[in-house]
Amino acid sequence: ETGVTQSPTHLIKTRGQQVTLRCSSQSGHNTVSWYQQALGQGPQFIFQYYREEENGRGNFPPRFSGLQFPNYSSELNVNALELDDSALYLCASSLSGTGTYEQYFGPGTRLTVT
Amino acid sequence: AQSVSQHNHHVILSEAASLELGCNYSYGGTVNLFWYVQYPGQHLQLLLKYFSGDPLVKGIKGFEAEFIKSKFSFNLRKPSVQWSDTAEYFCAVLPGGSYIPTFGRGTSLIVHP
Question: Does A58 touch chain B if contact means CB atoms closer than 8 Å?
Answer without folding.
Answer: yes
